[in-house]
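ZP: hey, is the farnesyl diphosphate complex queued? I don't see it on the tracker
AM: it wasn't, my bad. submitting now with these inputs:
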Amino acid sequence: MYPLGTLRIDELSDEERAVYATLKPERLPEHVAIIMDGNGRWANHRLLKRFVGHQQGAKSVQLVTETASRIGLPWLTLYAFSLENNLRRPRAEVNFLMRLLKAYLESNLARMMDNNVRIQSIGRVHELPPEVQDKMRWAEEATARNTGTTLTLALNYGGRSEIVDAFRSLAAEMECKHLSPDRITEEDIHRHLYTAHMPDPDLLIRTSGEMRLSNYLLWQVAYTEIFVTDRFWPDFRGVHLLEAIADYQRRERRFGGLGEGCGEVEENPDRIKIVVG
Ligand code: FPP
């Protein structure tokens, strides 16, 4: 659960504090994942170039991360750059996103330290330009001893390729240990995912209205609650994170079991005659 002493509620804005006051502290999510969408549309609506939307999106990343750290959220995982973005976007936009990521890490490191945030990454980061990998490693090392929120950036990430990578490393382990495939369990697959060290997300937020998973954390979101907002990512702030958490707390999570108000359970179902059709 939450490490003690990490709450900094007094640093929330008045607006954030009003929403936070409606939350049940004992039912806060441990892990929130976000699909940050709508940078391009945000810019388009203002007759601006797409890159301005991405720049504004980077500001939202910092503000939302700081709110997460103030409420003591242990894990925040952001979809910052997908494998598909890398393959399908114009080179100029990909290059801009790489430069933006480097600049973001450089200029926000001090704020990450002030907020006790630990930065990590998941994805095929080794395929990114060497200078981006270096900057990411630099930020990871500098923040490694921080004990507050872990901000994980999914970079050159795809859910299916993560599962392929997990199967490759699990197959290698099985070969080495001479294990037969029928011994594979869900836990084995979990151990080989990029996210083996974190709990599955409790809440997945997607901005700008699309009802898709877009190849994000496919294995991990099996029982995750999904919250979609029409708001574009560059307009998304800490208060909206808190509103999404409030919505999450109104839901009943059943993990395939029975919830409250599920109706009466038959004591002896063998007695019931089954009629179909
Ligand atoms: C979607 O907007 C967003 C992305 C391509 C990835 C998210 C990138 C950022 C928030 C910017 C920088 C991030 C960091 C960590 C510094 P879109 O271009 O797909 O929007 P659209 O669907 O409206 O075109």
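AM: back. The pocket of farnesyl diphosphate is lined by residues 36-41, 54, 57-58, 61, 80-81, 85, 100-101, 104, 153, 233 (CB under 6 Å).
ZP: great, adding it to the tracker
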